């Protein structure tokens, strides 16, 4: 029963849009103007299994100048079973990228994750790094980045962990067909107290000019967690995204 509830919850989540994915290295930022997407998802079941899931997401990436791109991502997810809330998570990320040559750039990231039922109450960080654009074409892109930062791992009970960290990023996309696209975004944060690895893999298929079906798989791993918490969270999502 619990497995079924979790699978229904996962299917209710709406996947990220690769065209305006603001938590990567902004490799897909437009040459001018802006791109974005709005995602909403809802699932309700009754009978032997009673669950209700609601989620939303907003992505926006803009070309502020010839060399500067900026983007934000805001997400929210709630889930309840038999009127009992068992999942609630909110995230925010603000990314900036400044190109210093055709293949090199500086980047900065501010991110925040509040998970009422996760390993930590919240995690927040600020990072600055140097990146290299390995390639970029109409068929896809690959960027790598490495930087330094500072992070807070707030626990529900006890003393919060505050640490200096190193960060690595990978941002990859490949056009499989005229309508299908694969994206892979990986981030690794190595801290004095906790190491965190996040992998986001997705395949999207356009069904119209502004709508796409999306299959996504996300893995979030923390090397150290409070007693009773699980180190690895995995989420498989299927959904529809509206782009603008």
Number of helices: 1
Strand content: over 45%
Proportion of residues in helical segments? under 10%
Largest sheet: 12 strands, antiparallel, barrel
Structural class: mainly beta
Tell me the total number of β-strands. Answer: 12
Shape: globular
* Distance between the amino and carboxyl termini: 39 Å
Record keyword descriptors for this entry:
244 residues, mainly beta, globular, disordered N terminus
How would you summarize the topology of this molecule?
Blueprint: H1 2-12, E1 34-45, E2 51-63, E3 68-81, E4 84-99, E5 104-115, E6 122-137, E7 140-154, E8 161-175, E9 180-191, E10 195-206, E11 211-222, E12 232-243
Antiparallel strand pairs: 1-2, 1-12, 2-3, 3-4, 4-5, 5-6, 6-7, 7-8, 8-9, 9-10, 10-11, 11-12
Question: Care to give the gist of this entry?
Answer:
This protein has 1 helix and 12 strands, in the order H-E-E-E-E-E-E-E-E-E-E-E-E. It has 244 residues and is mainly beta.
